[in-house]
Design goal:
The protein is of the alpha/beta class and 253 residues long. The protein folds into 2 domains: 1-104, Alpha-Beta Complex (Conserved hypothetical protein from pyrococcus furiosus pfu- 392566-001, ParB domain); 168-247, DNA polymerase, domain 1. The chain has 9 helices and 7 strands. It has a 5-stranded mixed beta sheet. Strands 6-7 form a two-stranded antiparallel sheet. It is rod-shaped. The chain starts with a strand and ends with a helix. This is ParB-like N-terminal domain-containing protein. InterPro entries: ParB/Sulfiredoxin_sf, ParB_N. Residues 114-163 form a coiled coil.
């Protein structure tokens, strides 16, 4: 079985040394595949492990892909490859050798007459080239669709972040909200309007001196008139009730 895949260049190895090929050729073709977005003659590889592969055919193309990755790790991360089953290795090698030998030269340098075998090989090569082009087109379309989906997802997340109201902490409520908003929140927490206004008056007076450092600081400093004396505007028990109601309101909203 032969599967066409995008394979991580780092996961591929070959037993042919890089020195077998001219660096200038590798460099030139690496620039081309980075510009076009892929290699038009995929490697033929076999799996040697869970995510590891060895080159069977296309050693030059492999080193071109390696050079492309060296130039641009992001664009050159993956390479087109036919991944074959190990039991087909010998047949694939024979097929590749036959394709390479399509043009046979005699000793005088003239092309030998075409045989039925070479004609069939040429037809096979033509079909393979067409298949490669179709696969390359499908890959590019897939990449484009994937990029569009990623952008749409990013836009949705951004819109959610923009439209979702940011919750502020209870301490920030006591330190920043104006009279209308703070008294409304106190009323929603079960405090009558008259007392809520008195509490806000005390809060405003105290936070002009300095910001509240904690909810305990709010309890300690906020005082309201109680006849000729002053009493705590918000007791510890009342603060617990207020926080519980505010938290449930935030969850429901």
């Amino acid at each position: 079985m032969i599967n066409f895949s995008l394979v991580d260049v780092k996961s591929i190895t070959t037993d042919i040394p890089r020195s077998s090929f001219a660096e200038a050729d590798l460099d030139q073709l690496a620039d081309i595949i980075l510009e076009t977005g892929g290699i038009i003659r995929p490697l033929i590889v076999k799996a040697t492990g869970a995510e590891n592969y060895a080159v069977i055919e296309g050693h030059f193309e492999y080193y071109v892909a390696v050079r492309a990755r060296e130039k641009n790790p992001r664009k050159g991360e993956m390479v087109n490859a036919f991944v074959i089953s190990p039991k087909l290795e010998d047949l694939v090698i024979k097929q590749a050798s036959a394709i390479r030998g399509i043009e046979l030269l005699d000793k005088g340098g003239k092309t030998l007459p075409e045989t039925t075998e070479t004609t069939e090989i040429k037809k096979l090569e033509s079909r393979l080239a067409n298949l490669e082009l179709r696969l390359e087109k499908q890959i590019n379309e897939f990449k484009s669709e994937l990029n569009q989906q990623r952008q749409q997802t990013a836009d949705k997340i951004k819109n959610i972040e923009i439209t979702t109201p940011k919750q502020i902490s209870p301490l920030e409520i006591f330190n920043t909200l104006d009279q209308t908003k703070l008294t409304l929140k106190l009323i929603n927490a079960g405090i009558n309007e008259s007392v809520a206004n008195k509490i806000f008056t005390s809060i405003e007076k105290e936070r002009k001196k300095r910001q509240f450092s904690s909810l305990s600081d709010v309890i300690e400093r906020v005082k309201i008139p109680n006849g000729k004396t002053q009493k705590k505007g918000i007791t510890s028990e009342k603060m617990v009730v207020i926080l519980d109601i505010w938290s449930r309101i935030n969850v429901e909203s």
